[in-house]
Amino acid sequence: MIADLWFDPACPYTWLTSRWLVEVSQVRPVDLRWNVLSLAVLNEGREDDPENDPEGYLWVPVRVCAAVRQEHGHEALGRFYTALWTSGGDGQNWIADLRVALKAAGLPEELAEAGTSTDYDEAVRASHAEGIALVGDHVGTPIVAVTGAAAERVAFFGPVISEVPRGEQAGRLWDGTLLVAGTPGFHELKGRPLVELPH
Fold first, then answer.
1. Phi-psi region at 11: left, alpha or beta (left = phi > 0; alpha = psi -120 to 50)
2. What share of the chain is helix, strand, coil (3-state, %, to 5)?
3. 129-156 confidence digits (pLDDT tens)
4. What predicted TM-score, i.e. pTM, was given to this entire model?
5. I need a labelling partner for 57 at 20 to 30 A (CA). Which of 45, 46, 148, 164 fits?
């Protein structure tokens, strides 16, 4: 079974969902593939700014992710995404310095230059469009699409979590999410109010 994850690298809730999927891959026969989604693209043309990003900073990490994906593949993107959130070191930044993360992921540090270039914007937009097409533009990040042995595909937004389930608890959440999302006619399920995560 393949699980494609579309993620914006700057979203802390998406980071938690990605760690859940890594846990799932340890307890269920799931292979992860990493894909880019952009909150900057999603919010283009809106009068409000839900991400509070007037300077366009959200473009920087997502461009680097697109460069990694295009030049080195989805496994390298998964390594870089992990390093981006785990190699910060100073406790002040919610994601690490791009060059530090690239080095930690075993990737060329010069890929950081993609963050301030438009060279990979087309790749960002194409990957974003692929993910959004599965669930509609009324959602954000993350999007997961699961392809089973018979090539059937189930896609969903989220789940949005504030704690990472571990071991079999992660597997049970996976099983339940697939059951609900794969039910014909199912559209939405919400839980408790969102917990504010520290940045």
1. beta
2. 45, 10, 45
3. 999 999 887 888 899 999 876 667 899 9
4. 0.87
5. 164
